[in-house]
Amino acid sequence: MSELKTRWDIFCTVVDNYGDIGVTWRLARQLVAEHSLAVRLWVDDLRAFERMCPEIDVHVAQQWQQGVEVRRWPAEWLPTEAADVVIAAFACQLPATYMEAMAERKQPPLWMNLDYLSAEDWVMGCHGLPSVKYKHVQKYFFFPGFQKGTGGLLRESGLLERRRQFQQDPQAQRTFLQGLGVDRAPDAQLISLFAYENAGLASWLDALASDSMSTHVLVPEGRVLGDVERWLGVNDLQAGALHVREAVTVQVLPFVRQDQYDQLLWCCDFNAVRGEDSFVRAQWAGRPLLWHIYQQEEDVHLDKLEAFLALYVKGLSAPASEAISGLWRAWNAGAKMTDHWHSTRKHWPELEKHAETWCLEQALQADLATALVQFYGNWI
Q1: Which of 84, 206, 276, 367 is the catalytic position?
Q2: How many CA atoms, within 13 angstroms, populate the side-chain half-sphere of residue 42?
């Protein structure tokens, strides 16, 4: 079957505001742009999607955005012909009538569960294996990951070259930041902060405020703003707000498109990110980072954190490894950050070099969209 005629359906239920739709929107666009596929993206919450793609009309059930057919996932499902490839993102449950439509096809579709990103060892053993069946339609596990034997990471063609050119062009960076209302002082380190609520933030901001180095913290609108407000002693922070305390400047940014967020990460010296989508994009930025992992019951998320750290710190000296690992663990425990931040700063040149090395190593793997297309090609 020709790729040009292949129809793909991607189903997304919005659980964590932006993470789920962030991943599936990137994937859908790349499948269209780079693999010439016909893609329908089914989303149950178009308002969350609108923050990422302002052109979305939340009142329209069917529309096209950047070559992707965007469909509202209705509460009452109407009869719809099943696609050649069906992706249930993050184990979302497909509509019963759509599953019947899959079973009624003369040629059953390839049905995949695109799972959450994890560096745990068991992922390699499960990736690509058959899962449950619905009648005669077989579902398969598909795991993104950081090692061979997984589905890789989302990475558009030419991304790292565009990033390299941007990071080598100070004027392009200044122009971009000025477009967001950011006036960066020449001697200030730039930090982006995108996180869930975190009790450890106040101690980190205290450390930045009392530092000999100036720091400009850029905070995209999101859940961590409440903690920022408490530290500043203000209420109702909005995009554009700017506050200075000693050596630290805190500025709130509007929620931006994905490509603009990439450029924000490329501009910054250090990126604090959360969840899955921004976590991967920060790795492609080639800069030191801090991950706030999505909290799960019984702290199972901490196993995922440790699994990633075990991979990430390979190649670092023992002191640098201990410093960055300590910082990540403290952040994810909501613990005091001061000493861990100071330790991390001591190893800054090594951590900067390592972040770029890690990025280039990950880029040696096939990207997630290509891996999915290859899996389908092998399946048929």
Answers
A1: 276
A2: 22
